[in-house]
Amino acid sequence: MKLHSALYSLPAAPRHLVALAVIALCSGQAMAIAPFTVKDIRVEGIQRTEAGTVFSYLPVRVGDTFTDDKAAAAIKALYATGFFKDVRIEADGDVLVVLVEERPAIAAVEFTGIKEFDKDQLNKALKDIGLGESRTYDKSLVDRAEQELKRQYLSRGLYGVVVTTTVTPVERNRVNVTFAVDEGDTARIRQISIVGNKAFSDKEIRSNLALTTPGWFTWYTKADQYSKQKLTGDIEALKSFYLNRGYLEFQVESTQVSITPDKKDIYITINISEGEKYTVSSVKIEGETFGREDELLSLVQLKAGDLYSGEKLTASIKKITERMGNFGYAFANVNANPDINREKKEVAFTVLIDPGKRVYVRRINVAGNTKTRDEVIRREFRQFEDSWYDGEKIRLSRDRVDRLGYFKEVTIDTPEVSGTSDQVDINMAVTEKPTGNILLGAGFSSSEKLTLTGSIQQANAFGSGNTIGLDVNTSQRNRTIALSESNPYFTDDGVSHSYEVFLRTTRPPDINTGDYRVQQLGANTKFGVPFSELDTVFFGLGVERTRVETFTGDPLHNDSPELYKTYVTNFGDGTNATTTSFPLTVAWQRDSRDSALSPQSGRYQRANLELALIGDLRYYRAIYQHQYFRPLFRTITLATNAEFDYGRGMGGKAFPVFKNFYAGGIGSVRGYDSSSLGPKATNGDPLGGSSRLVLNGELQFPFPGAGTDRSLRWYVFADGGNVYADKAALELKQLRYSAGIGISWVSPVGPLRLSFGKPLNAKPEDRIQRFQFQLGQGF
To answer: Is this prediction's pTM over 0.70?
Structure first.
């Protein structure tokens, strides 16, 4: 960078003396020049920079005495701004003249030949480092951007990439910066060699690595493209593989990565030392245990005689640390020290516990709830401010907030309060998601063609935590209008309250082959009382006025099913029947799932008894459902569901036909038409039954490319189920089975499930519906 010193217009001074002054200032040597008082300052050469900006950086002001030191300082300060590529200072009498030549501005940053990256994201990343439109051109930043772009391509296995940067001057002292990229071909991993393995084969070891050689799906997964990060992860996976099988002293001695001259093929060699296989001789606990040594020792998963496992040892330390956290010791230090006996190939562990100071929570902070009120989140907390830290209560608080279903993500951390050793804050961060739920169901069958159902529900209405629902259906078969509201905190101690008002009209699927009509007008209210953190008991009362109409025609056209004719004979005049009932509801629910929308672990159970003892009808209707979720491996979840429903009439009266259960479709047995299984009328229309058994099993996998995102998954399933007529024996051989594949997605408008099912033992009278989808909650 070239510096110009001050040129003074001093009449008495010869020109060569001024030149000497220039040399002296640039070389840092002192030279006595008669100072003068600055009467004015003038800036010349600026085009985009404001004169005020130059004045703000000058260490000289009007009225100051100008000296050679201030001249050097002024030049240095203006160069340091980065705005100018040349700076000169002259004196015109008592006027200080600053002459500058500005650096060019960037008119545009362009990319050509880029397919691997999004250009808008690249432009944003460059602006973050100071390289963007209207910014001052800096060659060092351009060189840095070029190298970073190359590095990003190398990380994706594109080793043949060539980046050419062109800087083109344009009008008004500006330049265009163009990055021309030739991406070349992606380098593929052609071979992964393992050297030093004796206990396990190359194939078995490579099956635990994320990197692989080209295969059927590597075009999508890109697992055959090398990156340093992937290799580092694979080395850790390889260590875990050996450590979990007893090889305590396993080491990766070195790795070599080579690429062919044409930069298309990559060869990876991993050199390992397996060491010996060790068994555990003993495990003991030392340190401060507060008299709970036996309790803490029971948390250790490794026992004497077990094969050493690094995974079990890590899990044991984690459990002990968490248990100490439940006692208020948030910063407990737990370490397992090994004592290795190489002759016997045994290892003994001493678990040292240093609890540190007992910690209490100073403050609970909630962030990210742009819609949901603070109180809706805080009332789910079981850890309180100004109380002892309890790790179990903190985890329970997080799970309860997640189970609300209002947030995409719920995270919690407990940073130590600065300047203290016995206080923490709890910071909960939530990410809001749309809580409006449009429930849509659709399917296609040869008999019914396209079928649709729908409703609208707004959970967390106005951020209050309340749920408002409106169910409207104008189809020929099911006409419904229902309004409902639910308040989970009707009282401050967590008693919930909900109500529903409805008018429903039901007709058969095809009135040309069989006709009847059921119209229900009613309302109900329900209260839920929490008896523990997981258990809630519900009590409800409703009123229903039901009118059933039947019609007479020939057996194949417009004639009502015998089941409905029998009902109107028992409760009406043989053609119509109008009844009033006051069903009482008692229910129990236990929910230990880690999430309401995308559970990976835990259980959900509910039992519901509907009992009608007052009014024209006498019956009971019992429902029990049990869902179980368990993580398998790191990314796979096993999900099961079982539901058994049973209804009977009492006091010599028959079970109401309109209270029948139905099965078939998403939510019961996929692959069969919705509500089509079980007893049928002479014309083939489904009639439902007074008892039902449904069994479902799913293996849920992360969607390719979605990483650990739980909101988008694919699954394989197996279903079984059927419904049975009133007083009929429940025979397992009558169950219908299906299997298939599907996708679940927690979309912005609600949970979406798609399935393609194949019936495994369908009978000729069964209605098949292979493709089905549901927008709304479902198993």
So the answer is: no
